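Progress report, Aim 2. The chain analyzed during this reporting quarter is listed below.
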Amino acid sequence: MRLLHTSDWHLGRSFHGAGLLDAQRGFIDELVRTVTERRIDVVLIAGDVYDRALPGVDVVALFDDALVRLRHAGAQVVVSSGNHDSATRLGFGGRLFAEAGLHLRTRLDDVATPAVFERDGHSVAVYALPYLEPRMVAEQLGVEAPGHAPVVEAALALVREDLAERRAASAVPVAAVVLAHVFAAGGKASTSERELSVGGLDVVPVSHFAGFDYVALGHLHGHQELAAHVRYSGSPLPYSFSEAGHTKGAVLVELGADGLRHVERIEWPAPKRLAVLRGELDVLLGDSALAWAEQAWCQVTLTDSERPGQAMERLRRRFPDTLVLAYEPEGRVEGAPKTYGDRLREAEDPLRVCEGFVEHVRERRTSDAESRLLRDVLGAAATAEVSA
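Predicted structure tokens for the chain:
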């Protein structure tokens, strides 16, 4: 039996103000193509289907279309909710939808109720843990210690209990797959994930997942292998510039009567490249080796000793999709830095006060034209004051 592990679709998300709905439609095209070509039996979505608890109408329509296309391609779908989703809204109609091949797991009460699939003399039980907020579920699980680790451990104990009973009663081998939306120990985060908690209480040891045939993790946006049977699929699209080095896709998992047989990384082409550029403005604008970045989303850090004027406008003439601009001067030689208040107290000439303010805000000195403009304005103000 072939399963395709995905997670963190974040439908409806934007990228530094740039809309991603078209790119997400493209990802779904790749997903459906993979399901068809690789003859996938079950698609797994390990949380964060949507980017927010109240997705827009067009976003919900996109997910609806994806589900219909996946079912027409022959795959059933198992979905768990993540920390970005509204578990109640996403889980609506779960029992009815299961009859149509869509298995929703968004409630704690359902963690030990697997979606079971049978084929070729064996069965696969898929247990899906939604994101479990400790403050909301600890009492129900009988957990007193704070944090995600004890909550997940208690939920998995319920899974193991059901699995043991199911295997004892089954006439065929039963493979066990677990979906979990967690921050597992050893995983590497990017800047696009929302923290689950503070103080390290969100980290779940990989050892909690021992004994299962495959564990499909969600939450972290980079593909990662934490153990032979424990992986993050990563998000299907990049959602921050910290993911510029990621290759996006999914994980194909093949299970048989003897358990896990094959795991394969499936890669999908990026709809748009990410460029993280750093250097002086004139150097970046003149570097022919950066021609590829002219079609990319760009994050630019300028290192000029003084902040260049009209930097964003000049950058966008060459790199139209510059979305983030930062300024980190290198090599500036100065004495002890003075605050703007210090400069104000030391200045006697109103023109110097204004020039100092401009320099403080923009981190560069005023140009000759700007100084002339300031001088003219101050002169006009002084004339008006005398006339009054």
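Confidence is low (pLDDT under 50) at residues 197-201. DSSP finds eleven helices and 19 strands in the chain. These observations will guide the mutagenesis work planned for the next reporting period.
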